[in-house]
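#dry-run=false #mode=assembly
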Amino acid sequence: LSFASKKLLTLVSEAALENRLIRDVLACGAKGYTVSGARGTGPRNQRNGDLEGGNIRIEVVADSKTIDQIIDLVQREYFPHYALSLWISEVSVLRDERY
Amino acid sequence: LSFASKKLLTLVSEAALENRLIRDVLACGAKGYTVSGARGTGPRNQRNGDLEGGNIRIEVVADSKTIDQIIDLVQREYFPHYALSLWISEVSVLRDERY
Amino acid sequence: LSFASKKLLTLVSEAALENRLIRDVLACGAKGYTVSGARGTGPRNQRNGDLEGGNIRIEVVADSKTIDQIIDLVQREYFPHYALSLWISEVSVLRDERY
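#status=ok
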């Protein structure tokens, strides 16, 4: 088994941002993503995700450079306007070329 | 991009525990959480989550001290009575003050 | 708090593979799993998960040997035929004997 090191980025936002976030994630060079439904809350927020279609959780596995580009864009274009959480972790994958 | 190191705690339990777990997670000092629906099984359990509203998966990103307090509470008050799985991993975040 | 090191394997596939994947995961020695619904896309795929019941996301926490056996099997029996993504990360657990 031959593993390659990648980053896993998890983004949690209101569901209304799904299409825009996915477009931006792919435009930054990610080759795929996984979306699941969620609900929850963050600092100073009311409980999100109970209203207006809930929250989403987007997972993106990619190389550092791609993840950095996504985070940079999110920081500039989403953080000032939307409640959005993100965290990054180290993961291993097979088939390096697919991520 | 300036990252801070945090812990990601994932808790999987029966859905009936959601409100109590979230209350306890916030009481331990977490500033937010993400909940999603799930189903599954663990050792000696029947397949959970197919009955009675399924399972939930709660994710909490916080500092080590907060996560340790949550785990300590879960160990004392939940493990003896409920089927509950948890795992912890290392994550990086932006905006340190939000976690 | 006494932690043990384990691996977390996340598998994302079309929902139609759920029963077969779970059977194989347990046959490789995993003691539990968590399944949640998802949708998404990977390289060269159309947007999966919008048709035919969506995608699933299976999480398995186990020791390295068990995870390697699952990955080996997935590589041989699933990768040639199905769109399936996987990634592995390091996690800590309590109650070592349950994983």
